[in-house]
Request: fold
Amino acid sequence: MVKKKGAPSKCVEWYVQVLRLTAFLSPENMIESANWWNDVIGEPPDTKTLKPKIGGSQENGLFEGGRLILEVAPNRVDWILTALQDEVLSSEAIPTIGPFYSKLDKFLPIVERWSQLDTCPSLSRLAFGATLLCPVENRYIGYTTLSPYLRNVVIDPEGSSDFVYQINRPRNSKGEIPGLRINRLSKWAVLALKIAMIAPQGSFSVVKSKENMACHLELDINTSVEYNGTINQKAIKNVFQELVDLGKEIAEKGDIP
Reply:
């Protein structure tokens, strides 16, 4: 196979396993509110767990076909939308919560509402993460599907296996914060996802098993640790949108500078 040039002729449809906002608080900030879930979602979580030894909490509840999680630590906040793990055991399908762009449209308002709260702190770093899958029939189709997205990589779909490609291609932010640099990490693979149903009464024999293949794209788009400034509350929405747009570019066009 020869090296590729240009964007993929047709973008695959990516499905979401995980969407994530990670915010690292500025050193001078302290968590001032324990009510972010209620303030953003408008109703109590299904469960809330306090972590007195390390400080912080975890709250979660059903949201848009998945599970929304809010994890708060003394110096870090995570909003995570993930596939329902309890449904994995009752289904032979690959566990996802729906198409990438439609779920982003549901996730981004959460970030916006959180960033507009008076209790939302200023940040030292911000990150957008996503785990995306595209189901394929077999490994060969998976490799030929990924190939147009990885222009500088030659994949042999017939004579290779266990392919994993990871790269960071940083860019300068085009936003209003001078000197802000953004890491664009992407990890590409074709995975075999095997779901096994185990016989009851403590037996270890597998009574049901199905293997699903999928192209796998993991994104971690984050502001550089080398940036010494502050991302103030008013800038969070726009900075996060830029991170998301860069993630969408990778999902659509592949590994480009």
